[in-house]
């Protein structure tokens, strides 16, 4: 059992992970090098004062990790920054502390290479918002201590998560590879003039997404008939996007600083006064409750 958790990074994912564990009454110390980020994180939790019995913040890296049983790194998706952080914490760690990364793309081999604690490193890839979404992708390496991934799996399952252990270390894991494939095709459809952003989102939320909330692509294929899907693949695969570069649609938005909810403008405009973020979370909570109710039936 991991009784003391250190979360390194208090951005969207780091804060959500810290919140999840604190809500489950585990002692959590959240670290960020930037005191302003910590202030923003605390402000986001201002209506959840009950978790402060278990959650605290620090800008002192040694304080954050020296007594932790499990350290979850959730800093910016930059390999050099992540590896530098691992070097910084090395001398502070307990000899049996487990170090995990919440990276969304990097293989464990890239992160663990040359680290003295590589046999105690894994990937725990949570999903946004991590305090709500059940899935956590788990990745281990050939060097990972025997039984460690099973221990983490049991630990997360105990607190209501649905861990999925990958059979091999793969860049982007499972979910993000699927998401990027869909997003690439969505951008391609917009660029090709087939539909606009709003209508493509509507197709997902009013059709595909409803089915995918209860069944994955293989179950959907079974339900539709594999003979039917064979013909669909024959007809469509030659025309799907196989672009290897970042879609221009996304690149242009980022260049303009239109990065989505965090900036108030992405493919859509967001009004912080109308609590768009909170409304989205509320919708997700309702969907999860509905799914749970349907499964129980």
Tags for this model:
Rossmann fold; N-(1-d-carboxylethyl)-l-norvaline Dehydrogenase, domain 2; alpha/beta; eight-stranded mixed sheet; 12 helices; 8 strands; 2 domains
Describe the structure.
This protein has 297 residues and is α/β, with parallel strands linked by helices. It folds into two domains: 4-165, 3-Layer(aba) Sandwich (Rossmann fold), CATH 3.40.50.720; 176-296, N-(1-d-carboxylethyl)-l-norvaline Dehydrogenase, domain 2 (Orthogonal Bundle). The protein contains twelve helices and eight strands. The chain has an eight-stranded mixed β-sheet with strand order 3-2-1-4-5-6-7-8. 24% of the residues are buried. The mean pLDDT is 93.
C-alpha termini separation: 33 Å
Considering DSSP H and I runs of 4 or more, what fraction of the residues is helical? 40-55%
- Helix/strand/pairing class, anyone? alpha/beta
Largest sheet: 8 strands, mixed
Fourth-tier CATH superfamily name of the largest domain: NAD(P)-binding Rossmann-like Domain
Please write out the topology.
Elements: E1 4-8, H1 12-23, E2 27-31, H2 35-44, E3 55-58, H3 61-65, E4 70-73, H4 79-89, E5 98-101, H5 108-112, E6 121-126, E7 135-139, H6 148-158, E8 162-165, H7 175-191, H8 197-212, H9 217-224, H10 226-236, H11 248-255, H12 276-296
Parallel strand pairs: 1-2, 1-4, 2-3, 4-5, 5-6, 7-8
Antiparallel strand pairs: 6-7
């Amino acid at each position: 059992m991991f009784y003391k958790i250190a979360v390194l990074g208090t951005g969207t994912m780091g804060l959500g992970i810290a919140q999840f564990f604190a809500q489950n009454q585990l002692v959590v110390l959240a670290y960020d090098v930037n005191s302003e980020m910590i202030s923003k994180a605390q402000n986001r939790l201002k209506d959840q004062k009950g978790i402060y019995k278990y959650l605290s913040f620090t800008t002192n890296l040694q304080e954050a990790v020296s007594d932790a049983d499990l350290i979850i790194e959730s800093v910016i998706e930059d390999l050099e920054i992540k590896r530098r952080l691992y070097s910084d914490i090395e001398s502070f760690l307990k000899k049996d502390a487990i170090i995990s990364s919440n990276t969304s793309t990097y293989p464990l081999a890239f992160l663990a290479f040359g680290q003295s604690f590589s046999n105690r490193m894994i990937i725990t890839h949570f999903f946004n918002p991590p305090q709500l979404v059940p899935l956590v992708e788990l990745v281990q390496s050939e060097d990972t201590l025997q039984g460690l991934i099973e221990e983490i799996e049991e630990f997360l399952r105990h607190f209501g998560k649905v861990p999925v252990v990958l059979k091999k270390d793969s860049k982007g894991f499972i979910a993000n590879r699927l998401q990027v494939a869909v997003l690439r095709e969505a951008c391609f459809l917009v660029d090709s003039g087939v539909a606009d952003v709003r209508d493509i989102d509507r197709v997902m939320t009013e059709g595909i997404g409803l089915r995918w909330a209860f069944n994955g692509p293989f179950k959907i294929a079974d339900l539709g008939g594999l003979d039917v899907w064979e013909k669909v693949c024959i007809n469509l695969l030659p025309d799907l996007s196989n672009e290897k570069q970042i879609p221009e649609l996304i690149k242009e938005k980022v260049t303009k600083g239109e990065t989505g909810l965090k900036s108030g403008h992405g493919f859509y405009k967001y009004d912080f006064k109308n609590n768009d973020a909170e409304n989205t979370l509320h919708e997700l909570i309702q969907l999860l409750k509905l799914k749970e109710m349907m499964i129980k039936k």
